[in-house]
Amino acid sequence: MHMRRMPAFLLAIAMLMGGGASALGYVDPGTMRSGSELQAGTLDRTSIAVRATYDVKLTLRYEAGTFSADSTMRITNESGVSIDRLELNTISANLGRMRVRTATVDGSRVTPRVEDMTLHVPLGGVLPNGASATVRLVFDATLRSGTAGSDWLFTRNTGIITMYRWLPWISRERPFARPSFGFPFMTRVSPKVTLQVTTDRSMKIATGGRRTSVTGLSQTFVAQNVRDMNIAASPWFQVLTGTVNGHTVQVFHRPGGPGQAMLDQAKAALTRVEARLGTYPWPVLTIANSSSRDYGAASPGSIWLPTGVDTSSLAYLMTHEVAHQWFFGVVGNDLAKYPFAHEGTSEFMARHLLGLQRASRCPTSRLDLTIYQYTSNCFYETVYVQGSLFLDTIRRRMGDSAFWRGVRLYMTERRFAFGSSKVFLDTLDRATPLDLRSLFDTRFPSYY
Ligand SMILES: [Zn+2]
Questions:
Q1: What is the number of domains present in the chain?
Q2: Where are the alpha helices (DSSP H) in 325-386?
């Protein structure tokens, strides 16, 4: 680790010149480093309240199932206090056997520590509130080849590459291992991501961004206000495009797959959900088949649907994933700690809007637990199915107009920021003269 301090003789010269001398008669050597706002010292303090833009060059090797990334983050500390390290989350670290080749902050080398799926990056000094720095990470990773466990998130399988949470991102450290299939991520919105992907063969690439240029085998995508920039790519994808309410919808599907049905359902779902939750905030919605046979996933501006999804469940799955564009994309939350905040809500949107409410196949249980506390058997039946029924009870108690007013208030007040299960429930409570807390307390005993 390189603690960057000004050499003593330079400090002496600075003091003789008197430039920037404080009332105490010395110059903080950290403030004298040219071109950097970092100051000398250590705090052992981090924060997720760091604004970051990402400028990334990705080399993706389909044949080898590997990639190399060169990511330049421009960070600004918005936490209100000084920090001296970042916690960057990426499953390249644990699933991808990530190897960091270069890590620098304002051009000086630092040594990140990789633990589980978190990269602890020392800034090499103290970054005061409001100050900015440039963090560059160059790393290699290897995709998995199967889809068992969580591997489907990060694999090349049956002709499709899926890379979820592959880019180290401003986050909070969370353990990856969990008994349920809940997502253990908490990522902060980035105002801008520029991603250039260069592939070793011609490929169709689905991301949450808008494609801005193509040169040979390089494609550039730009996204704004996103919490992630996930990729599904395949040489074999076929692409269909449509528009709905002024948004472009694209479908990247397997040859022979139900591409047209996916496009129709995506348009229908976007129309349905937008009518309830407000305008979809990104220019494009991209749907892609994932490597998984079982799981779908959402990230801002993009959705993965499992392959082989039968057309009878397409409307339900699509509506659930489209609802995540709001409950996770627009309003984020700690996905590990508050699965109800994005899963219970998105499931409610799908089941309510499609008239698919049904009884749960697991005993009635708490909705305020973390993804580490539910069993894999009952995670879906509790958080999703019971969560959906619970919200329907609240909706009927409040009446439709107050209920949807409360939901939209949550979207407006927490737009591109973080909410939580409790913030969501409290917002509903504020939208009605009724006292809902007696309904909340049995299912969310840790909050009420
Ligand atoms: Zn979901």
A1: 3
A2: 339, 345-354, 376-379
AA identity, residue 86? L
Å from CA of 328 to ligand 1 middle: 9
pLDDT (0 to 100) of residue 317: 96
Distance 93 CA to ligand 1 centre (A): 24
Domain end point (choices 324, 356, 391): 324
Q: What is the mean pLDDT of the segment spanning 45-49?
A: 97
To the question of pTM greater than 0.90 for the whole model, the response is yes
- pLDDT score, position 27: 37
For position 293, what pLDDT does the model report?
A: 87
Looking at residue 309, its amino acid is V
Amino acid found at 362:
C
> How many angstroms separate the alpha carbon of residue 94 from the centre of ligand 1?
23
Structural domain of residue 410, as residue ranges? 339-440
Calculate the alpha carbon distances from 140 to 65, 137, 285, 390, 447 in Å. Answer: 11, 10, 29, 45, 42
Please give the distance, rounded to the nearest whole angstrom, from the Cα atom of residue 206 to the centre of ligand 1: 19
State the pLDDT at residue 33: 56
Q: Is the dihedral of CA 47, 48, 53, 55 positive or negative?
A: positive
Element spanning 269, H or E: helix 259-277
| CATH number of the domain to which 153 belongs | 2.60.40.1730
Is the separation of the CB atoms in 394 and 444 below 8 Å?
Answer: no
Tell me which long-range contacts 437-440 makes (C-beta under 8 A, separation of at least 24): 439/393, 439/394, 439/397
Determine the Cα angle at 159 with ends 158 and 165, to 5°: 90
Residue 312 has pLDDT above 90, yes or no: no
- Same domain (yes/no): 415, 315: no
DSSP bridge partners of 88: 119, 170
Instruction: Classify residue 371: in a domain, yes or no.
Output: yes
288 and 358 in a single domain? The answer is: no
Q: How confident is the model at residue 17 (pLDDT cuts 50, 70, 90)?
A: very low
CA of residue 183 relative to chain centroid, distance: 10
CA of 107 to the centre of ligand 1 (A): 40
288 and 348 together in one domain: no
207 and 261 share a domain?
A: yes
Please, is 101 exposed, middle or buried when counting C-beta atoms within 10 Å of its C-beta (0-12, 13-18, 19+)?
exposed
Mean of pLDDT values over 262-291: 97
Whole-number Å distance between alpha carbons of 289 and 357: 26
Q: How far is the C-alpha of 410 from the C-alpha of 428, rounded, in Å?
A: 8
